[in-house]
Amino acid sequence: MQHGFLVVDKEPGMTSHDVVSVARRALGTRKVGHAGTLDPLATGLLVICIGKHTKLIEGLTNDHKTYTGTFLVGKTTPSFDLETEYNQDFPTEHITKEQMEETVKSFLGTQMQTPPIFSAKQIDGKRAYDYARAGKEVEMKQNEITIHSFSIDSARFPEVDFEISCSKGTYIRSIAADFGKKLGSGATLIALRRTVSGAFNIEQAKTVEEWIELIESDEVFIP
């Protein structure tokens, strides 16, 4: 396989770079990259670009994304997800289904978002999470994002399942934190799965192991 895409269904625990490294070894080339980073705890769609297709990474990264997952309302962590331990509890008794639905509507459209401190954003040549893990405070600059659609299912409250379609650079962890604040409580992202990235859909994806098996059997070839 000289040029093309591997549409991967990433497992939890692997970084996006881990998937790239595995692909490089299996394909015997270093000309491999990914379009749109997924956090280690997240699962789902990761588009791996090979050969000449690595030139398409920037355009693919700019495409809209769709995520599904779960917020836990009433608890927060410093990282806004389960990378760090819960550090605060908040009341949830006052929250109604109607209030949550109205809160969801407030996220729709174009807005400014503050990335989480536990993120890969570059600050003075270092990743933001390096400062966070060292206990240092840094100012996180806001980014413009667009939420195209946002729906929830609160049947399992305080766990709230969601689906969000959004622009590039959107941090779902920050949406979780802001969702909790707008409810007069707190919230943590406890599950995240990417299902769409531009023209690619999770139904097209294979696991890393499945791709390796196909590559080693010479069943994958794009001239």
Give a description of the structure.
By secondary structure, this protein is of the alpha+beta class. The protein has 2 domains: 78 residues, Pseudouridine synthase; 133 residues, 2-Layer Sandwich (Pseudouridine synthase). Helices cover 24% and strands 33% of the residues. Strands 1, 2, 3, 4, 7, 10, 11, 12 and 13 form a 9-stranded mixed sheet that branches. Strand 8 and strand 9 form a beta hairpin. Helix 1 packs parallel to helix 6. The longest helix has 12 residues.
Task: Summarize the model shown.
Helix content is 24%, strand content 33%.
Indicate the CATH topology of the largest domain: Pseudouridine synthase
The major beta sheet can be summarized as: 9 strands, mixed
Beta percentage is 25-35%
Low-pLDDT stretches are none
Q: Regarding CATH, which class of the largest domain?
A: Alpha Beta
Percent helix, as a range, is: 10-25%
CA-CA gap between termini: 7 Å
Counting DSSP E segments of at least 2 residues, the number of strands comes to 13
Classification by helices and strands? alpha+beta
What overall geometry do the principal axes of the alpha carbons give?
globular
CATH superfamily of the largest domain, by name, is: Pseudouridine synthase
Number of domains: 2
Radius of gyration: 19 Å
What is the CATH architecture descriptor of the largest domain? 2-Layer Sandwich
What's the overall average pLDDT, rounded? 91
Count of runs of 4 or more consecutive helical residues: 6
Instruction: Please trace the helix and strand order, writing H or E for each element.
Output: EHEEHEEEHEEEHEEHEEH
